């Protein structure tokens, strides 16, 4: 009887230890260290694609550079459930939609940012942060 209790306790400790170790990558996954939160960029462009998917949605926007070339920028945001709470639907950002978008740029200079706000041509503001209870 005593050995059964010891095995049970050992198994519980093992499960607890494994769940603790395996949860570390999950907390790292939600890091925003790749973005320069002290800087904000704003640009005008045209929606190329809206990837309304888990775990993070991406808005791809084509931006015309000063030299006339086009760069596709990726703007990361929360999951579709957060976007729905912020009243942002996939139909709001169909390909070809003109948009002014702001976000925190990538620290390494790649054309990507954390989406903070966007304004459509008709003046409708899309603020994905409104869908988050706690950031």
Structural overview:
The protein is elongated. With about 140 residues, it is α+β, with helices and mostly antiparallel strands. The protein has 2 domains: about 1-30; about 40-130, OB fold (Dihydrolipoamide Acetyltransferase, E2P), CATH 2.40.50.140. It has helices at about 1-30, 80-85, and strands at about 40-50, 60-65, 70-75, 100-105, 110-120, 125. The protein has a 5-stranded mixed β-barrel with strand order 1-2-3-5-4. It has 2 helices and 6 strands.
Quick structural summary:
The chain is an alpha+beta fold. The chain is 25% helix and 33% strand. Strands 1-2-3-5-4 form a five-stranded mixed β-barrel.
Work out the helix count. Answer: 2
Going by CATH, the homologous superfamily of the largest domain would be: Nucleic acid-binding proteins
* Whole-number mean pLDDT: 83
Give the helices and strands as they follow along the chain: HEEEHEEE
Domain count: the total is 2
Which CATH architecture of the largest domain would you pick? Beta Barrel
Spatial strand sequence of the major β-sheet: 1-2-3-5-4
Biggest β-sheet description: 5 strands, mixed, barrel
Percent strand equals 25-35%
Fold-level CATH name of the largest domain: OB fold (Dihydrolipoamide Acetyltransferase, E2P)
Distance between the termini: 49 Å
Uncertain parts: 12-29
| CATH class call of the largest domain | Mainly Beta
Query: Compute the gyration radius: what is it?
Result: 21 Å
In total, the number of strands is 6
């Amino acid at each position: 009887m005593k050995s059964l209790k010891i095995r049970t306790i050992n198994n519980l400790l093992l499960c607890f230890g494994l769940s603790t170790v395996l949860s570390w990558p999950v907390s790292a996954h939600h890091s925003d260290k790749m973005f320069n939160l002290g800087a904000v960029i704003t640009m005008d462009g045209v929606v190329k694609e809206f990837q309304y998917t888990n775990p993070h949605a991406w808005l791809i926007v084509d931006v015309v550079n000063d030299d006339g070339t086009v760069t596709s920028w990726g703007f990361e945001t929360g999951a579709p459930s957060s976007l729905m709470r912020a009243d942002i639907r996939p139909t709001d950002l169909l390909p070809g939609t003109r948009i002014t978008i702001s976000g925190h740029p990538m620290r390494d200079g790649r054309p990507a940012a954390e989406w903070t706000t966007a304004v459509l041509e008709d003046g409708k503001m899309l603020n994905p942060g409104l869908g988050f209870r706690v950031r």
